[in-house]
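Hi there,

I know you've been waiting on this one. I reran it after we fixed the sequence typo, so this is the corrected version. Both the input and the resulting structure follow.
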Amino acid sequence: MTPEQTDDDPATSGLIRLRNVERGDLPRMYEMQLDPESNRLAGTIPRSAEAFEAHWANVLRDPSVTAKAILLGEVLVGTVSCFWRDGQANVGYWVSREHWGKGIASRALELLLLEVATRPLYASAATNNTASLRVLQKCGFVVEQVQLSPATDRFSEREVALLVLTEGAPGGAEKTREVGDDPAPP
């Protein structure tokens, strides 16, 4: 999402629905994850076709993962998921760039949070990805920490915000900290 776009388009919010990711979704999902601007903002390195297939084969057979296709009408426009990493439940999402700024990520995450009762939930976002941070914060996630994350085979070195959702469903009234609002030292 570009800085001038918002993620609040009410015209699309009623048309967004989730369903389980199906094998037939994978070719479109593979193409979405190749987008250079999406990868730049997320700080990700696209997977090769083989790595993508292997990753999603594991996801689709793992009963602990909730992986949903985001549909706008009947069109696949992204994915949203809840998965376990380092003993913690995490959420992540990816929306095709041509659908940024329509409220899709926010609505999809809201729908996922209604389905996934696990709390706390964790998320991370590159600090330069202000649109993604806004989506998470609108859904009640609070920035706990900002840190430099080293480069891996999947991620470039980047500054990331680590966020947590401890209570409730989307739109919680909890106050959210902004990135850069570090608490005063003791």
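Quick highlight: The two ends are 37 Å apart (CA to CA).

Best,
R. S.
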